[in-house]
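Hey, can you fold this one?
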Amino acid sequence: MFRHVAQRRMLTPGYAVVYPNREKAASKTAKAIVALIMLISVALMLILIIGGWSKLQGLKPVDFIWCIAYLIMAFYIFTRWARGLLPITTGLAMLLLIIVVIAGTGAAGTSWFDRSNPGFGSAGLPADFLGLVTVLLIPVQILLIFFTMLAFAQGWNVEVEVPIDEAKRRGYHLAESRPSEPATA
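Sure. Predicted structure:
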């Protein structure tokens, strides 16, 4: 169907594939920072969702889905070096940044800080605290955008073929591979 796409990887016998950019300390640090910032974002969002549950309007399921998506993406970025999730994370962080700037400043009407006045009733947590958490999400999302783009530029996906001995010296655990035999009908 796709003529120019390799059907399977052709690996030189006696060689293994390694990812040299993943071995760098800067790449490992960026990966850990991205995952940590995503977990901090989830914690802050859950504080807002649960603490302001009685006053939130709509989008409660979307908030939980957003948290779950961040958790799943953080898992794959941290454990599997999923570089393709970094731009998606950046996009979601930009959307969340827009939402929290609007919510934190009260640009769309009422902010959490306005809800501390008489007549708004009580949310689970004090409205001023929820407003502070909303405003704290702004720098957290800016940091997430910065570090995901930094990590994306590191080229975690670059592959290099090296002799098996070199790959083992670098710490790669290689599965014993058998030579492939042609399929018989």
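The longest strand covers residues 15-18. Let me know if you want another pass with a different chain boundary.
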